[in-house]
Amino acid sequence: MMMKDEQQPFHNSRIKQREKRRKTNIILNSLIVIVLLLIVIVSVQIFFKDDKKTASVATEEQVATEKEPGTLEHSNKADKADDINKDTASAENRNKTAASKDNEDEKNPADKDSDKKDAKVKEDSEIVTEGGNDPDVKKTIVNPAWEPVGTAQTGEHSNSYGGVDWDEMVQAISYATGIDQGNMTIHYLGNNGENKSVGTIQAKDTKQKYRVYIEWVDEKGWKPTLVEELTE
């Protein structure tokens, strides 16, 4: 067995080792704490720098907006201009609608001028003869300027007193007399030979009667040839 004096150095050595390990642990723990603190400090600094940068950018944008009021003013002017344009367009549409209702049965000035010129040519070309062999005739009218009124019919034509052929005959009579179909009473409309017809009509407003002779022109429709103004 070892003596007490022999065990004493071994015991002291173990105590020294434990103290050394304890100091080492303290140092390591202190270093870890220091590193963690440094990490926290750096993170805080980065965070505050980002906040300051964001605040600085926002401030600069606000200052730029305040220094350039023209942009907002221009936007407001553009909005007002759009509103004015919309109001103007709406007013124009209302005016057009009202004008259309007031003049739905009227032609535009260009058409009126064209009609007046055509009527003038026809009037200048008219050959009017007072009276005639028939005592019922006050005067006869022939106009070389008369033309066929056009047709929707195709193929070989034969007089048909109904349907499209009838409508086109009435159109030719209205064209020759200048009496609107709505102001016309048809007393008679019948055959007057091959591809020829004759009709007797009366104006509803003036009560004046007319006998109108028409003939068919292939692919062009009915054409007036003679108008007789009748006595009542």
From TrEMBL:
Look up the domain of life of the source: Bacteria
Q: Where are the transmembrane segments?
A: 26-48
Q: Which InterPro entries does the entry mention?
A: DUF1510 (IPR009988)
Region Disordered, as annotated, extends over: 60-139
Q: DUF1510 domain: which residues?
A: 141-230
Q: Which UniProt keywords apply?
A: Membrane, Transmembrane, Transmembrane helix
Q: Where is the composition biased (Basic and acidic residues)?
A: 64-86, 93-125
> In its keyword annotation, does this UniProt entry include Transmembrane?
yes
Q: What is this protein called?
A: DUF1510 domain-containing protein
